[in-house]
């Protein structure tokens, strides 16, 4: 099973000023999507898995400051991965496991047919 993983940052929260710094990002809203390149559900849709959340980005003493208009997606990804305590490969492995579970469930739900 091959999958494609993408990081998305739909919103960055910032304050106009924090001490002597301006346009200071405080929160990254993020989503990581993983889509199977081959496995589909009963409706013909590719199997997917998503992880999402927020990551705080407080100003750290001695750390390089990056103003809002200079922030890159790579900067956001580094902050999110650090917050998760995972590598990109580990995040992908987690999401691939979710897709594998969808493909071949180990836990089934329902009620007996005679009910």
Per DSSP, the total helix count is: 2
Termini gap: 37 Å
Q: Give the strand order, joined by hyphens, for the main sheet.
A: 1-2-3
Task: Give the number of DSSP strands.
Answer: 3
Unreliable parts = none
Beta-strand portion reads 35-45%
Structural class: alpha+beta
Helix content: 10-25%
Question: What is the average of the pLDDT values?
Answer: 94
Report the principal-axis shape. Answer: elongated
Number of domains: 1
Question: Cα-atom Rg, whole angstroms?
Answer: 19 Å
Biggest pleated sheet:
3 strands, antiparallel
* SSE order, one letter for each helix or strand: EEEHH
Task: Offer a quick outline of the entry.
The chain is built from 2 helices and 3 strands, in the order βββαα. It has helices at 73-84, 88-103; strands at 3-18, 21-40, 46-56.
Folded structure, characterized:
The chain has 115 residues and is α+β, with helices and mostly antiparallel strands. It has one domain. Helices cover 24% and strands 41% of the residues. A 3-stranded antiparallel beta sheet has the order 1-2-3. A hairpin with a 5-residue loop joins β2 (21-40) and β3 (46-56). The longest helix has 16 residues, at 88-103.
Per-chain topology:
Elements (H helix, E strand, L loop, with lengths): L2 E16 L2 E20 L5 E11 L16 H12 L3 H16 L12
Antiparallel strand pairs: 1-2, 2-3
